[in-house]
Amino acid sequence: MSFMSVDSDKLARTSCVRPIKIEDGRVLLLDQRKIPERVEYFDATALSDMFNAIKDMIVRGAPVIGVAAALGLASEGRRLAHAGLAQREFIEKLDLARKKLQSSRPTAVNLRWATDLIFEKACKGNSANLSLLADELFAAAISMVEDDIRANMMIGRHGASVIPDEGGVLTHCNAGALATCGWGTALGVIRSAWDHGKRFNVYVDETRPRQQGARLTTWELLQDNITPTLITDSMAGYLMAQRRIDVVIVGADRIATNGDAANKIGTYTVAVLAHAHNIPFYIAAPLSTIDPHIENGDQIPIEEREASEVTVIGDQKICPPEVHVWNPAFDVTPARLVSGIICQTGILRPPYTESIQAALAQAPD
Amino acid sequence: MSFMSVDSDKLARTSCVRPIKIEDGRVLLLDQRKIPERVEYFDATALSDMFNAIKDMIVRGAPVIGVAAALGLASEGRRLAHAGLAQREFIEKLDLARKKLQSSRPTAVNLRWATDLIFEKACKGNSANLSLLADELFAAAISMVEDDIRANMMIGRHGASVIPDEGGVLTHCNAGALATCGWGTALGVIRSAWDHGKRFNVYVDETRPRQQGARLTTWELLQDNITPTLITDSMAGYLMAQRRIDVVIVGADRIATNGDAANKIGTYTVAVLAHAHNIPFYIAAPLSTIDPHIENGDQIPIEEREASEVTVIGDQKICPPEVHVWNPAFDVTPARLVSGIICQTGILRPPYTESIQAALAQAPD
After folding, report:
1. What is the interface pTM, i.e. ipTM, of the complex?
2. How far is B315 from chain A (nearest CA, A)?
3. pLDDT value for A5
4. What is the pLDDT of residues B82-107, one digit of tens each?
5. For residue A364, what is the DSSP state?
6. In chain B, N or C terminus with fewer CB closer than 10 Å?
7. DSSP 8-state code for residue B216
């Protein structure tokens, strides 16, 4: 079985939640800051709009910001192609655009991976006709959307086996359709298991400071008629002590070649708790999340974001203004706490240095 | 040294933050729901007002709700004494009032302890003059305020030794002056260490769902010119992994005779994290927090509160309305994760079954 094979019926069904839409050559992003109150799309076709959309988390989630940035870079390529530039100037300006997009968020590696792919295609492509080349780049970026959904469907298929027939599953943050181009990674596994008739309780961490669990994951699951139970991040330990969790599954923003994985802040705490309670802890992510240049988690840059994410919720200030704040957006879970990494080629197991190398060798690019 | 001895200068200085004030025989409670925005007192002299003040968390924190309830019961005694009742009827109605107050919140044992003390005093007192008896009950309740502050000063004195000269201390929820009658338990230890000239970073967990860390602990420390660093609950693990925490210190709502301790939800998670990082984890609490009738944590009733505490922050709804919610207000930390219990007689060490028994035998009542 090719790992790109996929059930086309299921693919069609994923259309209910789509964080990216292409309409008349424009790149529209579901504004995830407004979910669950409103479903609104933001036009991020222009380079500066895409940059801000990623930085301000209108779009978030490692796989989808990779594809969004690729579409943003390709859109910029189209604009440049109509500016009457020489080929060398076109490539120089496209390179600046790539670097700008890559600087929008430092931790997720998919952003670099996807924009590098588009840029390499530009360098290798037919530069005699820049307009045609730009269209090819845009088509390549669009094909990433379907590739990503296909990868997620395969992740779901492989991962469904780790989900119990009944009992409880805990997830942190949002690694769902909203974080990808559709179906999702961690939530894709949950969806696939549900599709296979398994009926279990899905517990969702609120995921402070930005509450992606409370706002996005619950909303997304409800679209599929799965009613989750929301807890605050502080409740995960007690929930496990009550033996209500059988497996934990989360996404990732960057995975080192030894299996250490950066993911949304709080993931490490959940992994330590799972380990202390002998609960399997899985990461679900496409192979593009693995950074072949990084050997361990210490080398992964961790973004620190502004204090107001912690101190203000909606219009509510939750603490006195004089307070100091520490706000890392991600943390690193060491490989020793990870039971398996579910990707489109299967479930990678320790020792990850070997299983990751083998999976990357099997991947198409 | 008597364990009731205390530095009277320090006692006077604790007046800056007082969750209970007695004015003209009325019991006024600092409305902790409004901190840090506003400092307002709520008149809880009437029984139903005190019941609601405890239930709705106008006043919260195990030691102070004990004393507040004792004052509420004594106030009700004064009201009954002027109603022209027979002695037996007076006691019956006072018993009903006691039971009503004890039903306001199930987990903290100090509430039961303090109201039982007042009620026993009523049963044993001179019933020939109910008005005089009621005044005696009120005076006894007032003396609990000073006893509590004295106990906290001793807790602070004993506990200061566990705080490093520099480095980092993490606390969860609010076990400060606001949770007691002044000075605080866990924050009392931090204050005492600061008084001794130690200079360390105080990290404060937000403490979702009700954010007592963000709202109350930060505000209280700023009153003493200690500037804390606020983190979300999800960041504690990563903070420890970065070696920025040398000791964890929290309060307790009920301690079993084996040392298992109920405290604000999320405490157990912090204890597991501290254990995984070889960081000492201390509980600071007066002896009245120990429940001599309970052998282990499984027997401690855990209050579950309404879903809206999780789903609404200020006016902000953070999730779709269809979502299920689990909202336990407390969790239980097993004794094996507790490095020591700091109380007014000293630091109790494992095996707690023995050290707790010895401490209770040493206590005055």
Report:
1. 0.93
2. 8
3. 40
4. 998 999 999 999 999 999 999 999 99
5. -
6. N
7. I
Locate B120 and state its tokens. 């026993």
The answer to whether A147 is a known catalytic residue is no
- H helix and E strand count, chain A: 13, 16
Question: Which DSSP string corresponds to B18-71?
Answer: -SEEEETTEEEEE-TTSTTT---EEE--SHHHHHHHHHTTSS-SHHHHHHHHHH
State whether B323 and A241 contact (CB < 8 Å): no
Q: Determine the Cα–Cα distance for residues A210 and A208; give it in Å rounded to an integer.
A: 5
**Beta carbons of A218 and B323 less than 8 Å apart:** yes
Q: Do domains B8-153 and B162-362 have the same CATH topology?
A: no
Give, for all 365 residues of chain A, the pLDDT tens digit: 333 344 444 544 544 689 999 999 999 999 999 999 999 999 999 999 999 999 999 999 999 999 999 999 999 999 999 998 999 999 999 999 999 999 999 998 999 999 999 999 999 998 789 999 999 999 999 999 999 999 999 999 999 999 999 999 999 999 999 999 999 999 999 999 999 999 999 999 999 999 999 999 999 999 999 999 999 999 999 999 999 999 999 999 999 999 999 999 999 999 999 999 999 999 999 999 999 999 999 999 999 999 999 999 988 899 999 999 999 999 999 999 999 999 999 999 999 999 999 999 987 65
List, in sequence order, every residue forming a beta bridge with A248; answer none if it has no partner.
A170, A281
Q: Which of B214, B238, B332 sits opposite A268 (nearest CB)?
A: B238
Q: Which residue of A has its CA nearest to B331?
A: A238
The span from the CA of A337 to the CA of A250, in Å, is 13
- 3-state SS, residue A40: coil
Tell if the CB–CB gap between A319 and B208 is shorter than 8 Å: no
> B260 CA to chain A: closest CA distance, Å?
14
Give B-chain residues touching A268 at CB under 8 angstroms: 237-238, 241
Distance from CA of A276 to the nearest CA of B (A): 7
Q: How far is A83 from chain B (nearest CA, A)?
A: 45
DSSP letters, A285-348, are --GGGB-TT--SGGGS---B--THHHHEETTEE-S-TT-EE--BSEEEE-GGG-SEEEETTEEE
Separation of alpha carbons B284 and A151, rounded Å: 51
Distance CA B42, CA B32 (A): 10
Q: Which residues of B touch A227 (CB under 8 A)?
A: 322-324
Best mutation site among A217, A235, A248, A270 for testing chain B: the one with the most B CBs within 10 Å?
A235
Q: How far apart are CA B360 and CA B365, in angstroms?
A: 9
Pull the structure tokens for residue A274: 């799972």
> What are the φ and ψ backbone dihedral angles of B79, each rounded to 5 degrees?
-65, -45
The reported pLDDT for the residue numbered A15 is 41
Residues of A whose CB is below 8 A from B276: 272, 275-276
Query: CB–CB of A206 and B208 under 8 A?
Result: yes
CATH level 2 (architecture), domain A8-153: Up-down Bundle (1.20)
Domain boundaries, chain B: 8-153, 162-362
CB B308 within 8 A of CB B301: no
- Compare all CA atoms of chain A with the CA of B172 and give the residue at the minimum distance: A234
B213: tokens are: 């860390």
C-alpha B203/C-alpha B205 separation (Å) is 7
Q: Which residues in chain A touch residue B231, judged by CB atoms under 8 angstroms apart?
A: 310, 325-327
User: Which position among A147, A205, A246, A253 bears the catalytic label?
Assistant: A253
C-alpha to C-alpha distance for A154 and A4, rounded to whole angstroms: 8
Pick the closest to residue A146 from A301, A18, A324, A53 (CA basis): A18
**Which has the closest alpha carbon to A146: A14, A323, A293, A235?**
A14
Token duo for residue A365: 């690019």
